[in-house]
Amino acid sequence: TDLDTARQELEEFIPHVKNLSDSSVKKMAGRDLMRFKEFKKQGIAVKFGRFTQKENKQIQKNVEELLSLTGIDNAEKLLFTSRYPEDKDTIHRLKIEHHFCEKISEGIPRPWRLIYYRARKMFDPNNYKGRYTQEEKEKLKKYQALHGNDWKKISELMSRSNLSVAMKFSEIKSAINYGPWTKEETQKLMNAVKEVMRRKLKTENPSCLSSLEQSDTDLWVDREQLYQPLPWTEIETKVGSRYWRQCKQKWNSILTSKLTRGQQLYGGTNGLKARIDLIKRLYETEAEDASEVNWDELSSAIGGVPRAYIQNKFYKLKVSSVPLWKRKTFSEIVDYLYEKKLPEFEEKL
Questions:
Q1: Which helix (H) or strand (E) holds 27?
Q2: What pLDDT score was predicted for residue 49?
Q3: Helix axes 295-302, 268-285, angle to 10 degrees
Q4: Which residues form the HTH myb-type domain (predicted)?
Q5: Where are the alpha helices (DSSP H) in 124-173?
Q6: Fewest CB atoms within 10 Å of the CB: 5, 20, 191, 195?
Q7: Nearest Cα to 319, choosing from 336, 339, 301?
Q8: Residues 22, 256: Cα–Cα separation, whole Å
Q9: Distance from CA of residue 218 to its chain's centroid?
Q10: What does each C-alpha distance from 229 to 49, 97, 117, 307 come to in angstroms?
Q11: Residue 156: what are its φ and ψ, rounded to 5°?
Q12: What average pLDDT does range 127-152 have in this prediction?
């Protein structure tokens, strides 16, 4: 099937397919189109949102059958093949030979990619390791000192998930102040950012240094080019009383204020357009969880503001528009916004 025809046929099942990239459409045409047509014949609609208990059991059954067919030892090898470099080629060959894509999604009326992500969440042993022992906590502190905030590297060394090691380190970090930022702390943060940025610009683009020389004002943070990755562990050390993530969040809030210069990006007609764009783009990601969203890419597409600004706007949107949002999953919230609120906003616009 050619690309235009595939997009047209998929639109019956995936309304937002017209907004997807050509490569995504090609993958969906290969993995999903025939499955969707079969489900249609059976009178079954394609689903999104939270996986049901029945679907979880079907995924478990599919994985067990694949293990039996391929002779692969365990689900981790099947779903996280890159963790086993010595067996990688053999596992890949067995997966192709026994139609891994078709088998893993059997009996589940959802896009293949979402089923695959769900299976990985269910069968990742690193997600279910229980409490950290004192020995593990000491190891975590040692690895963080060696590797900074390279949580991917540390997660491999600890055999824990990326999120788990990052969150645990946040918990055990000493000398953290959780109260409101004082003027002194804020000034320390500004000075620390200015210092590391001055050093960075001196190396990369000396002509930009003039914008940093206005030490009595905050005009220098008005430059959008200053919103870029910073060495947060170094900044944390200079601030002294705050954890690196707090420093980053505070800096984002400062920068957001400066970049927008008090303009109401989300006010009036612009506000409606921005909300519509945000809902559409979140829906297109098909993300099951907020952690799967590339917020930097999203914020860049919507208005070139920091990711924290977009995340804050999404939070306000769900709180004000989605009833009982605390009881809903991320995907259910996005689905509700897309199906219920988007038409309202478009009509109002």
A1: helix 22-31
A2: 73
A3: 150
A4: 124-161
A5: 134-147, 151-158, 162-172
A6: 5
A7: 336
A8: 34
A9: 31
A10: 33, 43, 28, 12
A11: -65, -40
A12: 85
Q: What sign results for the dihedral spanned by CA atoms 323, 325, 328, 333?
A: positive
Token pair of 277 as six digits: 């764009």
pLDDT tens across 206-250, in order?
A: 554 444 444 434 444 434 445 556 778 788 888 888 877 788 888
**For residue range 12-42, what is the model confidence (pLDDT) as tens digits?**
888 777 767 777 788 888 888 889 999 988 8
User: In the block, which residue shows the tokens 């957001």?
Assistant: 256
Q: Which of 271, 286, 284 shows the shortest CA–CA distance to 320?
A: 271
CA-based nearest residue to 78, from 287, 19, 69, 172: 69
What tokens appear for 331 in the block?
Answer: 């995907």
Q: Go through the chain and tell me how many residues it has.
A: 349
If DSSP codes are grouped into helix, strand and coil, which group holds residue 239? helix
Quote the pTM value: 0.44
